[in-house]
């Protein structure tokens, strides 16, 4: 294992440098594009709250 710290892009988790420690912008751009394509569609998520409506009745202790 090398003592060189691999810098990671915090948002994407893609290493910015190659195994020798040099910036590898071509690979970074390509991997970012692949990741954008993979996560381009995200289905809608609906959140339902059991406490919607009558707040007093919902928080009343039994």
What layout of secondary structure does this protein have?
Blueprint: H1 25-38, H2 55-59
Protein architecture, described:
The chain is mainly α. It has one domain. 31% of the residues lie in helices and 0% in strands.
Major sheet size, sense and barrel closure:
none
Counted beta strands? 0
Mean pLDDT: 75
SSE order? HH
Radius of gyration using CA atoms only = 23 Å
SSE class: mainly alpha
Shape by Cα distribution: elongated
Low-confidence stretches are: 1-10
Task: Return the domain count.
Answer: 1
The fraction of residues assigned to DSSP E strands is: under 5%
Provide a count of the helices.
Answer: 2
Share in helix = 25-40%
Separation of termini?
60 Å
Task: Please outline what is shown here.
The protein is built from two helices and no strands. The protein is mainly α. It has one domain (1-62).
């Amino acid at each position: 294992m090398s003592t060189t710290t691999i810098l990671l892009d915090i948002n994407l988790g893609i290493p910015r440098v190659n195994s020798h420690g040099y910036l590898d912008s071509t690979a970074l751009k390509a991997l970012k594009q692949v990741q954008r394509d993979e996560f381009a569609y995200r289905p809608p998520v609906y959140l339902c709250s059991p406490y919607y409506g009558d707040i007093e009745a919902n928080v009343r202790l039994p």
